[in-house]
User: What shape does this take?
Amino acid sequence: MKVPRILILGRIGQVGWELRHKLACLGSVSSIDFPDIDFTKPESLREIVRSAQPSILINAVAYTAVDKAETERDLAHSINATAPGVLAEEAKRLGALLIHYSTDYVYNGSKESPWVETDSPNPLNVYGQTKLDGDLAIERVGGDYLILRTSWVYGARGKNFLLTMLRLAKDRPELRIVDDQKGSPTTSECIAQATAQIITQVTAPGGGLAGRSGVYHFTNSGATTWYGFAREFLSRQANCPEIVPIPTSEYPVPAKRPANSVLSCEKLQEAFGVTMPSWELGLDLVLDTLEACVPQA
Assistant: This one.
């Protein structure tokens, strides 16, 4: 059987780092990141992909500074919208599978029930719009692709909400955290593991996408608020600060956030048999990892 050639774009980010470890045994895996590749320059992307000749191309790069995107629209658009379209063109030319990660922020949050893939996107901020534009660019090109929309990504490394709150909790007696935005905290490790399951399935003898190209929601199951999420892990700390729930109106930021970011992942389970674990279990695994990294006295 031919060994798949997997190229990961974004080797040092939260998801890219996990992908490198989870996919290592699935084929010939290579990864690259800035400055060896420039996502603002289409020719740089084309050169890397044509040189690597992957059978599976994974885009784990994104401009994720949600508030800064309000004033850095062109940069966010180059990375989140233009680049995915270029990657889709190159993947289609090679007959490769493109796996691209998108976001819950393509929805406006007005729906009370979980969002499904057939709901109409309507982003509230520039970041969400640029990510949606990237999704649409991939769809226009066609070929074999999977757009995996995830949410509230965090892990034991990188920059994320959990690590920020743990750091702040060491110095502050009180933390005021938004309690009227609902979503599904999703670990980078779970994203990588589920991606590995999908790749294993589509590269198995008799596998392939078989008409399953498209958009899939891709989050840990269950839902909570930022306050509920923070309370769950901060309450386990030796010196837990007071955690105060506040409305979004008391925490003004440049970019609007959706009130309900919960995504239904039924389509993913039906198409690939992949069931993501609960956000609570994902959190336990991340905290276990962090605890294991603390030097013992």
